[in-house]
């Protein structure tokens, strides 16, 4: 409605300006004639009045000076009339347009604030809501990680704010929502979702990979949980497992064969992850093709070089690495 009113006011203003310009252009010849007559009075005396020969034209055609004056006054009155549109002056039209623009900006800001994934609205959400969508316990942690990750990064011009792009990435990692779902939630095109994920995953890898640290043995012993201490003493250094991530089927036949997982019956990439007894991620390997076995990945990813003599490594029963760990 506000946009229709703004268009109406702009149209009325343009019509008033065109009308005023037209009347001013029509008044210029008459004003010029008046000026020439006043500057050259001899022209009146050199050309006798046609009263004697043609008396009738006097009544029909008033003198040029009088006509010019009357026309000029009429033009002035008409211009004043043209500067108003249905009783509204141009200044009032401008004021109405500015008000309409302000209302539009205000409505847009209200629409943005209604989204549950903006920084302001996200801050007011419950911890269970934040944990469900991001995997982080509360807004303070979400904000701290965001500040750390985005502190030295540059962001392009997109419809979303950098914080919304960050939340979108966390939601993808936490819930594995489809690009179409995320595009609908954030009001963007699904191709934009892929660009945002690629950008933020690269940023997170650079900024957060340095936080994965292999702990020293003394640090592990000082904070060893009681459940591990009672069963294994102080020698547990890491708990190992592999996980796989689904990928699209590669067009290259060799890559397709290397990433095919007989366990998942899908093309995947496989990672080896190590978790300290305290629950902190202490190691993560590079990505390998899903075809590789857990034992081969463990022996060749470099984690065995981090073990010390008498360290205990815990793994799933099907994780056949006892000989490999004993060799180191």
Can you describe this structure?
- This protein has about 325 residues and is α+β, with helices and mostly antiparallel strands.
- It has three domains: about 1-110; about 120-210, no CATH class; about 215-325, no CATH class.
- About 60% of the residues lie in helices and about 10% in strands.
- It has 16 helices and eight strands.
- It has helices at about 1-40, 40-45, 55-60, 65-80, 90-115, 120-125, 125-135, 140-150, 160-175, 180-185, 190-210, 215-220, 225-230, 255-260, 295-300, 320-325; strands at about 85, 90, 235-245, 260, 265-275, 280-285, 290, 310-315.
- Strands 3, 4, 5, 6, 7 and 8 form a six-stranded mixed sheet that branches.
- Helix 10 crosses helix 11 (about 190-210).
- The chain is elongated and about 100 Å long.
- The two termini are about 75 Å apart.
Can you summarize this structure?
The protein contains 16 helices and eight strands. The chain has helices at residues 2-39, 42-46, 56-60, 64-82, 90-114, 119-123, 127-134, 139-150, 162-175, 179-186, 190-208, 217-222, 226-232, 253-259, 294-300, 322-327, and strands at 84-85, 88-89, 236-246, 260-261, 266-275, 281-284, 288-289, 312-315.
Layout of helices and strands:
Layout lengths: L1 H38 L2 H5 L9 H5 L3 H19 L1 E2 L2 E2 H25 L4 H5 L3 H8 L4 H12 L11 H14 L3 H8 L3 H19 L8 H6 L3 H7 L3 E11 L6 H7 E2 L4 E10 L5 E4 L3 E2 L4 H7 L11 E4 L6 H6 L1
Parallel strand pairs: 3-8
Antiparallel strand pairs: 1-2, 3-5, 4-5, 5-6, 5-7
């Amino acid at each position: 409605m506000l946009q229709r009113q703004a268009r109406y006011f702009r149209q009325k203003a343009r019509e008033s300006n065109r009308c005023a310009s037209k009347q001013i252009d029509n008044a210029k010849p008459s004003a010029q004639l008046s000026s020439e007559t006043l500057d050259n009075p001899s022209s009146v005396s050199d050309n006798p009045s046609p009263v004697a020969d043609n008396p009738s034209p006097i009544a029909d055609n008033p003198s040029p000076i009088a006509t010019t004056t009357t026309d000029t006054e009429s033009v002035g009155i008409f211009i004043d009339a043209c500067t108003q549109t249905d009783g509204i002056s141009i200044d009032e039209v401008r004021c109405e347009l500015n008000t309409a623009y302000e209302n539009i900006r205000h409505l847009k800001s209200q629409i943005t604030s209604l989204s549950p994934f903006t920084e302001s609205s996200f801050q007011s959400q419950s911890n269970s809501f934040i944990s469900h969508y991001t995997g982080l316990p509360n807004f303070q942690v979400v904000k701290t990680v965001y500040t750390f990750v985005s502190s030295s990064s540059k962001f392009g011009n997109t419809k979303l704010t950098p914080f919304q792009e960050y939340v979108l990435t966390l939601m993808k990692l936490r819930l594995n929502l489809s690009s179409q779902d995320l595009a609908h939630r954030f009001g963007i095109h699904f191709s934009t979702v892929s660009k945002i994920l690629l950008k933020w995953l690269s940023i997170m890898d650079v900024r957060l990979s340095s936080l994965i640290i292999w702990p020293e043995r003394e640090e592990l012993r000082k904070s060893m949980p009681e459940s591990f201490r009672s069963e294994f003493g102080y020698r547990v250094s890491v708990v190992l497992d592999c996980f796989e991530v689904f990928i699209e089927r590669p067009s290259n036949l060799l890559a397709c064969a290397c990433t095919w997982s007989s366990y998942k019956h899908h093309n995947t990439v496989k990672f080896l992850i190590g978790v300290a007894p305290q629950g902190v991620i202490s190691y993560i390997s590079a990505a390998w093709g899903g075809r590789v076995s857990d034992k081969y990945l463990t022996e060749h990813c470099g984690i065995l070089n981090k073990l010390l003599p008498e360290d205990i490594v815990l793994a799933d029963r099907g994780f056949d690495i006892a000989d490999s760990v004993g060799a180191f």
